[in-house]
Structure formats: structure tokens, C-alpha cells
Amino acid sequence: MAEAYSMSLLGVSIADWRNIVLIVVACVGLPLAFWRSWVAHRQVGLTHRQVELTHEQVGLTQKQVGLAEAGQNADRYQKGAAMLGDDRLSVREAGIFALSAMAKRDPDNYYRVVQNLFCSFIRDRSREQMEAFAKQPKEPEDNGDESPPPAIAPDVQTALTTFSDLRTEFSAKFDGGTRYDLREAGLQEADLWGAQLQRADLQGAQ
Description:
The chain is mostly helical.
């Protein structure tokens, strides 16, 4: 009887019971496997989204940094330009050096702007010097000639030299077809050795 029991349980053979158990396990395990696969896929999707959000945050941060830097550069430019109108020579020359540094730091946005400003400064300051000299009483020299014109103002020479140095470094890439305006500038006593004045408009310059 034990043998019969071993071969059959409730009228179902042991082999059939084993199959039934395997089917039950499969019915329970298969949804569990699908669920675990879905959870893993969901986690991968969340990870990808987190990576995308991180990239977006990095992009926003870089944009904010760029905007802040642009604002700082605009402020530096305004301060440097204002320094050119100061009564003190040392401040005007400091403004020239500050603007030159700006042009080197951000040539895409400030190289031509700074160069044009230097040209304007050279024209205006040298003309002022020439006009002041013209108003002075003329005393003939011992040989009968009039007094020679004064040496170029130091800040004008500094601006001219800086203008030339910037062109030496950046002209090929950033000048393009720009024709810088130095018309009627007073350059008689300027040190023009090695000056990069090609394509500059020197009409009426003295």
C-alpha cells in the first residue's frame, strides 16, 4: 500500500504533482520576473532622465555664468572708457591698459570696439594738442624759424602703441575689412616705428 501511495496521491501521480508544482511556481515567478524587469527598466529611465536634468542644469549654469561675465565685461569697458576722459594722465593711461586687457580677454566682442575707441581718443586728444599749440604766441627761433610742434602727448602715444600692438596680435583674425579712422590725427612727433597702421584711414593726418 505504501508503494501505491508513493506512486499516487489523491489519484494523481507523483510525476503529475511535480508538473503541477512547476506550473504553479512558473505562474507565480513569471509575473514577478516581469515586474522586476519593469522596475529595472523604470530605474534605467529615471537614471537617464536624471542625467538629462543634470546636463540641463549644467547648461543653465554655464549660461548664467556667461551672462554674468558679459555683464562684468560691459562694466569694465564702461569704466575703462570713462577713465580716458579723466584729467589725470596716469588714470587715462590706466584706462588704455584696462581696455587693451578687455580686448585680449574677449576679442570676439571687444577687439574692434576697443580699437575704434582708441582711434577716437588718438584723433581727439592729438587735435586738442594741435589746437592748443596753434593758439600759443609764436616766437621765432634764433634762425628765424617758428617753434617746432610739441612732442606727442604721452597718453596719445600710449594709445597709438597699444592700438598697434593689438593689431599685431589679433589683426589677421578680427580686423576683417575694418578701416580704422585716424583722419586728421596729429601724429607729427609720434613714434611710429613698427606701427601697424595698414588699412587705417590717415587722410589729413599730420
